[in-house]
Sequence to fold (172 residues):
Amino acid sequence: MKVTKKEYFLTFLGAFAPLFITWIIDLVKSKPTFSTIKSIYFWVIDLINYKLPIWIFILILLVIFTILFIINNVKIERESFKKYKTDTIDGYKWSWGYRYDNSKGHYVIHHLKPMCNYCSTYLIIERDLDDNFKSIEVTFCPRCKQRRKFKTTSTTVEAIIIDNIQKNKYNK
Fold:
């Protein structure tokens, strides 16, 4: 992975900005240079040297780990829908994946494709003419050569999938 100039700059800025800001604060307050950092250092040392009973320390750690455990489990439960990647809708098997869309701020369905009910191969959707010479869409399986009239659209199927997720009507 190549590191860009912007990433180098942000790393440099993140490392030296606190020192620079402290220096400016000390200049404005007419204090000796970096006295703020020195004060923070002594505050941390005093905190470490504070006489704290061991049972309080263990209790604090237990509370922190419990909170982290709960937060982690909520995140896992909230994203459990990502295991839902296949379903049979309107007589066709469907397969899809999820992608996080930064512009929308949530996951979206992508690569939504119908599959053959007999051999699970991805179907090809073609235009054809029906008996009345009307243009229709048909599905064609390249493996087992099955042809069927396509009765739905991927937009409709995507709406059903989203509805299933919102109502928890899918196999978890």
